[in-house]
Every structure is written in structure tokens, then in C-alpha cells.
Amino acid sequence: xxxxxxxxxxxxxxxxxxxxxxxxxxxxxxxxxxxxxxAHLRHTGALIRRNLLWIxxxxxxxxxxILFPVxxxxxxxxxxxxxxxxxxxxxxxxxxxxxxPGLMAMMGMNMAQGVGTGFNQDFNSGxxxxxxxxxxxRGSVLFAKIAVxxxxxxxxxxxxxxxxxxxxxxxxxxxxxxxxxxxxxxFGSALMWVFLTLGVVMKNAQSVQxxxxxxxxxxxxxxxxxxxxxxxxxxxxxxxxxxxxxxLADTARGLMEGGPVAHDLWVTLIWSVxxxxxxxxxxxxxxxxxx
Length: 291
Known about the structure:
- The chain is an all-alpha fold and 291 residues long.
- It has helices at 7-16, 25-28, 37-57, 63-87, 92-125, 127-133, 138-166, 174-201, 205-221, 234-241, 244-257, 262-289.
């Protein structure tokens, strides 16, 4: 009877194939001697395969990537589409064209929350203790997590687009669509560093989820994702002007539907670069020093 290789066995095989100048397990826990780039890439690849194997063995972990885009698309199109569509000068069809780029912008943010809870669960189950005892680069563990979450985000985006087409969305620019997906991935990966940090410092997955809810809900609904901001109170409009999700959603609409994108694009990229530059070193440091 054949069996799939376990994720742990896959990682161990990759580590045995690592260059000889990689640290021994004992030394890896005591020093931060640099690991060669080629070894980093090898370890990251092995960890990505390990994470994908876990998904293969636990298909339920993909439920959020499947159900989230379906539920949110149907909910907002059929519950709010008529009323908000009229304010846009059309009807439900007009709202579909408005909300789908916004939902694409939100996809990376919701997947980012999942990486934090999963990372925390790995710590509490002892998986991360094993990783930190092995001769692998600390950053490799985090980069592998982000890479797999980006794959999940792209899968969720495909599901979203399928549902959007079924409810009447018209793709006006394939180039703009691909650019929007890429920009959402850039911003989503930047936000993942924030949730990886939360996954390290919080005591349990419930705390990560609660903190994520407090952060994400104002960003989601205090933005232009679901509705235009013109009818919002002045103080809330001021918030939306600096909300990166508004900039990302408006950029996606401009790319996919036509319209100005330069300002919102720069705002999105500045937020993405800033979050990564600040939070990536913090996440790696917290992961390296967590007791």
C-alpha cells in the first residue's frame, strides 16, 4: 500500500541534501552564523513543499479560500447591490462592476489573517521548536509561509472571479485584471508580515483572530471596497483617504474599469514597502528570539 511522504520527512530529506557548510542543529540553536543563499533557497523550497503537503492531507484548510469569495460576493451583490447600484447611477449590474475589484483588493488581507493563526498554532503544537532546532535559516520558515499563503490567495481570487462572472461581471481589461491581482498580492504579502508578528507574540490562535478582527473590520468597512465614500461623514472620509484598502480598491477599479490610477497606485506601493520594511525584520527577530 503506497503512502504520500510526510511533510516532516520531506523537510528532513532537503536538509540532508543541504551544503556541508550549513550549521549543525546544535550550532543553529546557539548562534546566528549566516547560512548561504543557496541553502536558504533550498530550505525555503522544502518548507513550501511541506506546507503544501499539509494542505493536501487536510483539505478542510482550504475552506476559507473557497467559501469566503463565494459568500461575500453573493452577499453584497444580492443584498446591497440594488440600493448601492442606484446611488452609482445604475442598478445591480453597475454594483457588480464596482464591488468585484474591491473584493479582489480585500482577498489578500483576509488570507493574511490566516497566516498569523496558522503560525501561532504551529508554535503551540511544537512544530516551530523543531524547525528552530534544525540547521535552517530563520527567514526561510517565514518566507515559505508567505509563499504558500500567496498561492491560497491566488486560488481564492480565481474562485472570486468565477463567481463574479456568474453574477454578471464583465472583464473589460485582462491586462488590468492581472495587474490588479499582482498588486493585491504585493499588498497582501506586506500585511502577512504584520500577522506573522502577531502569530509569534500572541499566546494563542484565538488572540490572533481577535486582534485581526479589531484591525481588519475598520479597514474593510471604513474604505471604498463596498460603497463609494462620498456619502460618508467628513471624519470617516478623512480616514478612508489614508486607508490603504481604499487606495488598493480604487487602483484595482481604475486598472480593470478604466480611470486614473497613479495616485492610488503610489499610495498602495508606499504602504506595501513601508509595512514590509518595518515588519519583516520584526517578525524574523521575534521568531528567532521567542523562547
